[in-house]
């Protein structure tokens, strides 16, 4: 791989991914993207990012136009974690539908919670939730 190829690869990767710390930072700066949880209802109920929309991956194609009407909006999708490709599939679906600014949350819900960032559970907001403990 040449230096130019590497530069193009990493620029494209950065354009389509965001890590939990960066997402938390921009959400606190009033330029928040639309965050979409693509997991099942059971997973959503166990915990999710504050302010996220819940649109399970298998329902995304049918619900996106209604619930995400702005195709130029900044959208971040996530699933459980690095062992789950639900967010990748959702990002592909949205991009294929004409959404212009879709990113995947690196590490998904698992990495978000692992960094001690706020999550919402059935009992409300927990500022340092660590599911599975």
UniProtKB/TrEMBL annotation:
SUPFAM superfamilies recorded: Rhodanese/Cell cycle control phosphatase
Q: Its domain of life?
A: Bacteria
PROSITE patterns named among the record's database cross-references: RHODANESE_3
Q: Which protein is depicted?
A: Uncharacterized protein
């Amino acid at each position: 791989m040449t230096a130019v190829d590497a530069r193009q690869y990493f620029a494209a990767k950065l354009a389509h991914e965001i890590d939990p710390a960066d997402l938390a930072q921009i959400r606190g700066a009033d330029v928040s993207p639309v965050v979409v949880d693509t997991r099942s209802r059971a997973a959503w109920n166990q915990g999710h990012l504050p302010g996220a929309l819940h649109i399970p991956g298998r329902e995304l194609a049918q619900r996106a136009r209604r619930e995400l009407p702005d195709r130029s909006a900044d959208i971040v999708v996530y699933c459980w974690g690095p062992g789950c490709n639900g967010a990748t599939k959702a990002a592909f679906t949205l991009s294929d539908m004409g959404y212009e600014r879709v990113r995947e949350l690196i590490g998904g819900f698992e990495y978000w919670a692992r960094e001690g960032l706020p999550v919402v559970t059935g009992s409300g907001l927990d500022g340092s939730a660590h599911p599975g403990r």
